[in-house]
Amino acid sequence: xxxxxxxxxxxxxxxxxxxxxxxxxxxxxxxxxxxxxxxxxxxxxxxxxxxxxxxxxxxxxxxxxxxxxxxxxxxxxxxxxxxxxxxxxxxxxxxxxxxxxxxxxxxxxxxxxxxxxxxxxxxxxxxxxxxxxxxxxxxxxxxxxxxxxxxxxxxxxxxxxxxxxxxxxxxxxxxxxxxxxxxxxxxxxxxxxxxxxxxxxxxxxxxxxxxxxxxxxxxxxxxxxxxxxxxxxxxxxxxxxxxxxxxxxxxxxxxxxxxxxxxxxxxxxxxxxxxxxxxxxxxxxxxxxxxxxxxxxxxxxxxxxxxxxxxxxxxxxxxxxxxxxxxxxxxxxxxxxxxxxxxx
Length: 344
What we know:
344 residues, alpha/beta, pyruvate-formate lyase- activating enzyme, three-stranded antiparallel sheet
């Protein structure tokens, strides 16, 4: 299928303008993601109709804590990613195209209409492009979002935030909620490992919030990558700058793929939570550490409290939601404070 968002260059080359990498791709080659290629047919995407994963999840798994707590969300992915994080938890899917270098991606052949029909049949109110990086299968994900909106579903993306402004502007009117992975911020060494500018991710987060998209942010605290106090302080400062819209998930890293540091220590998670609260981030959650949440230093890491009156609004245990007291209008029932999210 013909790809979108590119610039044709000399000698048969194309510049991809879908993400902030702006890969220049020669004939017969693919971009960093492994799914955008230059062939005899021009600039094409290989990631249009081969679904590597599709099924129903708790919405809290994304994680989305401010989007109809307790809802089920139909989740889907196509293989590929424009990053190559050495600790990737989904590397079997995300790195498949880069590792195999074949024009044929694995998965079930489903048109966007077929996928949305399956989501509707599942009884879910939400659909999410997730697991890998939806930016690299933008054309498919955008068509799914259009059809899902027409079918009465709400749309969510779980993304690394590297999408460029032009494709993002097409997506935003269709997006209801997002979780953006803020892997680092303002740290040159970390940016070199990822091959991106973290400021670009920050701009994406702000653009989503400004467009009225309920936006949550996740930082996986990876030992030796982003857990140094000065680096963590920059991440926290950015999150605090979001004001009342700041929703931050601090996730525990576990050894995976090519990164063999030990799991994130409780003390590191507790320090991040404490520093975030001191900086004024209104909503902070601890993820991927369920068995640690009884630790006093991490108490309340799954629950939502009102940042104004401290009333307990949503209780959670893992992916199970207990009470949700936020009004359909998105306010605290005790003090009337506005709680960002999708509640109705």
